[in-house]
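To whoever is covering the structure queue this week,

Two jobs came back overnight. Logging them here so there's a record in the thread.

Job A:
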Amino acid sequence: MNLCELLQATDGVLLQGDARTEVRSLCYDSRAVTPGALFVCLPGLHTDGHDFARQAAAAGAAGIVCERPVAGLPEDLPVVQVTHSRRALAQLAIRFYGEPAKRLTMIGITGTKGKTTTAHLIAAVLTAAGRRVGLIGTNGVCWPGFRQALDHTTPESSDLQRLLRQMADAGCDACVMEVSSLGLKMDRVTGIRYDIGIFTNLSPDHIGPGEHASFAEYRAWKSVLFRRCRVGIVNGDDLQTEAILTQHTCRVVTYGIDRPADWRAAPDFALLRQPGMLGVAFTATGPDGIPRAFQLAMPGRFSVCNALAAIAAADVLHLPGTAVQTGLRTAVVEGRVEPVPLDAPFTVVLDYAHNEAAAENLLTALRAYQPARLIVVFGCGGGRSRVRRFGMGEACARLADLCIVTEDNSRGEPLADILADIRTGLRRGNPDTPFVEIPDRRQALYYALDHAGPGDIVAVIGKGHETTLQRGDETLPFCEREILQTYMKQKQP
């Protein structure tokens, strides 16, 4: 595709060079530029793509897209100036990859907690209905026969459009994706019109340098999804829903437990506990007033809420009821209240809970199963708000019978400082809750298995689906599921 064709999608002005130049790819990282790539200069918190434009040119870039002129570029190299580089990248990518979202049923999910689980539940329901589905989110991108890790929950726009094109070319007819507030703010999903947008819940998170200036801004960006979708499915129980729907342009469908809603679950759901499984059975009533029975292989009220969002989405898409029941019953989400198969008289679950609200929700749900003891293994990531550490410590001390405090991804921050903040939170939450501090996470997992007893539930939280551990400047292989299973086998007589 030549540059002139691409520029029709933007407000770009050609400052120099030939608009007939052929563009073979799009790129925003100068280190990845190959001959024929159109390099888009993205401004960032720590680096600015404009500073690397000359490096991109030397690597064979077909042209440069920038917000301001860059000195020192070859005179014959096409240079295009745009108002917003990030928005332009999204517009260019949509045109370059042939508007792939229009070939798919697009379902976008936003909220603080539950995005990943809700996405997987919807994908399981769609699959049970015979649809070929792609997933994009915290757990990476996948479709039948393909899986890849991602650096961001919502990929950069050119990566996202490339993946959507590959997904459609692979025969997928639906895409379920997590839409983060930063994905909306940073124009990663600009130009995509969603068939369904889903709101799970909202609590303070991602507030700080490089993210959002305030909770109000965080909420405002979440709300943008409901001006870019045909139908909005929202949690009627969440106190922020009214604000999320400010200026919405979509048809609204509600779900919930406590308040009247289009899809409402009865509050008296049954807890299911079997070896290697914690689940829930519940009844939900739709707009037609008919109660329907459902079952999930994951525990707690929050899981019922996530399932209600999936049920409402299935209804909007006119999927068969049997597919909804089958999809929900069989869905397993990696690293989200995921039971670890062990030959043991206790239950171990992995979860991604890495802030106070998520930890409180999870531990409250597990406490409802009346374990002999509720043991939690957790740490907190470095380079993140200290408030998160205090909150995690408080929640775990209030709700667990034993806390095993350890490392998470320290990211170069001294682990001793992180652990000290967690200890402060523990004292605030409940100074009488026993805890042990084991800096090495592998040893902390071993300790949990050595000290768990019959009927206990052990929650290993913070990393969930992750398979690496960032310790200082090193990134180490670290799959908690494998570590737990291997150690447990070694313990067998």
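Job B:
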Amino acid sequence: MTTTARTVIIETAGGPEALTLVDREVGDPGPGEIRIRHKACGLNFIDVYQRSGLYPMQLPHALGMEAAGVVEAVGEGVTHLAAGDRAAYAANPPGAYSEARVMPAVQVCKLPEDIPFEEGAAMMLKGLTVQYLFHRTTPLKSGDTVLFHAAAGGVGLIACQWAKSEGIRLIGTAGTDEKCQLALEHGADACINYRTQDWVAEVKALTDGKGVDVVMDAVGADTFEGSLDSLRPLGMMISFGNASGPVPPFSIGILGGKGSLKITRPTLFTHIAEHEVCQQMAAQLFGKVSSGAVKIRIDQRFALADVAEAHRTLEARKTTGQTILTV
């Protein structure tokens, strides 16, 4: 069966104006693949990085890394999904900004009945990111203290709730008092307005001068040095994004001088590469949401045709919580 589906592609890297909506043919799934019809798609900073060329791709290429919908067909060898299943994913290759697509099944997860499609589309990439930050990157236990930048953003609000559910103290940063309040309402122990306060000094004051155990930083260039200065000796810096631009090269020797610090630059797609691991991570995320420990807050909705405006809003840091594209 071959049908067409509206799909967002880029032919050249650039600004939001590079995003084009086209009709693409969607055929049958091959071995290890599924065809899924989307109900909603998620919006993430990685989409911006790919569109702008920061993360180069072979062009032309469809965009979008997460979505939720209904499985229409499964290819040979796919056993964890069947036609008619509700499903959600964060996965390569990009192509989630579409009405329907054929894609590898390995990272597609069966979506529990009690989680709506819109929440499923909004939570997979950010929720699985929080899962690996708290459970797979460095040991964290109840009573530890984490500094989390952009605490009112999509990943941040999930992280605030996740930390609270596990007895971890989370100190957030955000760019307005309103965003700080939002982080506090979602479980942050404290939140610092980085535009009006010296956030490094505030972190030190909040930790009796010791610094935090772990920094989780998706802002990048603007916060890198301050993040290192916020860590206790032997602390771990997790740099997992570049919202303000990539971290510039630095001398590794500064880590010794600042207290024998550790640093890592993980990506979600390394963590979810293996099918069983991905499914286990998703099961924990689904459990957090189904139990009510983590609530998925969708503050922005855009039609698929308005994807350029969605990107502009995200890049201007005007979003809170999750942003989705409705199909």
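Note for Job B: DSSP finds ten helices and 16 strands in the chain.

Please reply-all if you pick these up so we don't duplicate work.
Q.
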